[in-house]
Write a structure and sequence with these properties.
Blueprint: E1 4-7, H1 10-19, E2 26-35, E3 63-77, E4 83-86, E5 89-93, E6 99-103, E7 109-117, H2 119-125, E8 136-138, H3 143-158, H4 163-184, H5 187-205, H6 213-219, H7 224-235, H8 239-257, H9 262-268, H10 274-285, H11 289-295
Antiparallel strand pairs: 1-2, 2-7, 3-4, 3-5, 3-6, 3-7, 5-8
Helix pairs in contact: 3-4, 5-7
Protein name: AraC family transcriptional regulator
GO molecular function: DNA-binding transcription factor activity; sequence-specific DNA binding
Keywords: DNA-binding, Transcription, Transcription regulation
C-alpha cells in the first residue's frame, strides 16, 4: 500500500461544512506511514500542530485513533506510564490529554491514523470501554481493520461523490471494530500484558545495569512471584532470562559492529566477569565470543 497523509485546515473544513452537512464525525487528518529504523520521529512531514518533541510530548484538540501494524515502540500519557507497544496495537488519543509515543530506533514501525471530532464522535468516545485510562487496545493483525483504513484513505484520495459522508461512515466503522476488540478483551489479561510491557520497556532502558526484579515488581504494585509468572506467560521466558538474552543480543551487535575487545564488551554489557560472559555466550550461541566475531553467523536467540 502506498504511503499517504492528509491534513485539513480550518478553511478546508469550513468549505466542506458549507457544501455538505456534518454527520457528527468530522475528519481532521488521515494517514499511513512506514517510519524506517534509525530515523528521528516524528518526521518533517508533520504540520506544526501535530509535530512534537519527545521531551515535551503533545496535547491535541481532537480525537485520534492510531494503529501500529508492524514494528514496536513506546507509548506514554498522563494516565499510562511508559509502555512498550508492538504491531497489532491501537491507541486512542483524547483532546486535552498529554501523551507521547515513538517507534523503536532499532525497528521503526508502520502506522495508520485518523483524527476526528464532532458531536457523534464525542458520544462514541464516551462509551464505557473507551477512556484515557484504557487508551491501549490489543487489536491483533485484523485484515478487516486494515481494509477499512485502506478504503478510507482511497475515499479521501480520490474525493468521489459524497466522499465526506462515506468517510464518516468508515471512521465510525473503524471505531466499531476497535470497540468490539475492547469489549471482547479480557480486562485482567490486558492489565497483565500492560504491566509486562511496562517492565520490558524498563528493562530495555537499563539493560547494562544489575536489575533488582523484586524492586521492579514493587514499582508496578505487584509481587515478584506474580511478575515472574505473568512475564513468562506473555513473553515465554522469565524477566531475568529476558534481561540476559537482551545483554547477549547487545554483545552480538558490538562484536559485529565495533572493534572493542571481548573483555571491553563483557564490561559494557554488564557481565560480572569475562569468564562468566564467555560461558553464557557459548551457552546461547554454541560459540565463544572470539569464534563468533570471526564467523559472524546469523543466530536467532528468541527461542533460546
Amino acid at each position: 500500500m502506498d504511503l499517504y497523509r492528509k491534513y485539513f485546515n480550518e478553511q478546508q473544513l469550513h468549505l466542506l461544512s458549507a457544501q455538505t452537512p456534518s454527520w457528527g464525525v468530522d475528519m481532521l487528518t488521515i494517514g499511513h506511514n512506514l517510519h524506517p529504523a534509525k530515523k528521528a520521529y516524528p518526521d518533517h512531514n508533520h504540520p506544526n500542530q501535530y509535530c512534537f518533541d519527545w521531551s515535551e510530548g503533545r496535547t491535541l484538540n481532537e480525537f485520534q485513533l492510531v494503529y501500529i501494524a508492524n514494528g514496536q515502540g513506546v507509548f506514554e500519557s498522563q494516565t499510562i506510564p511508559p509502555t512498550l507497544v508492538e504491531g497489532g496495537t491501537a491507541f486512542l488519543l483524547y483532546p486535552g490529554v498529554w501523551h507521547r509515543f515513538k517507534p523503536s530506533y532499532e525497528t521503526g514501525w508502520e502506522e495508520f491514523w485518523v483524527g476526528f471530532q464532532g458531536h457523534y464522535a464525542e458520544y462514541l468516545m464516551r462509551q464505557e470501554c473507551f477512556s484515557p485510562e484504557k487508551s491501549l487496545i490489543s487489536i491483533g493483525f485484523r485484515s478487516e481493520l486494515l481494509n477499512v483504513f485502506t478504503r478510507l484513505i482511497d475515499t479521501l484520495k480520490y474525493e468521489g461523490t459524497a466522499y465526506r459522508q462515506i468517510a464518516t461512515c468508515q471512521v465510525i466503522q473503524l471505531l466499531g471494530l476497535v470497540y468490539t476488540s475492547a469489549l471482547m478483551s479480557d480486562t485482567s489479561r490486558n492489565r497483565r500484558e500492560q504491566i509486562v510491557h511496562q517492565v520490558r520497556y524498563r528493562i530495555q532502558g537499563i539493560w547494562a545495569q544489575p536489575i533488582d526484579f523484586e524492586k521492579l515488581a514493587e514499582e508496578n504494585n505487584v509481587s515478584y512471584v506474580w511478575l515472574r509468572k505473568a512475564f513468562k506467560e506473555v513473553m515465554g521466558v522469565a524477566p531475568g532470562q529476558y534481561h540476559l538474552n537482551l545483554k547477549i543480543d547487545k554483545a552480538i551487535q558490538m562484536l559485529g559492529e565495533t572493534s572493542l575487545s571481548v573483555s571491553e564488551i563483557a564490561y559494557q554489557t554488564g557481565f560480572e566477569s569475562l569468564f562468566y560472559f564467555s560461558r553464557i555466550f557459548r551457552k546461547k550461541t554454541a560459540l565463544s565470543p572470539s569464534e563468533y566475531r570471526a564467523k559472524r553467523p546469523v543466530i536467532n536467540l528468541e527461542k533460546t
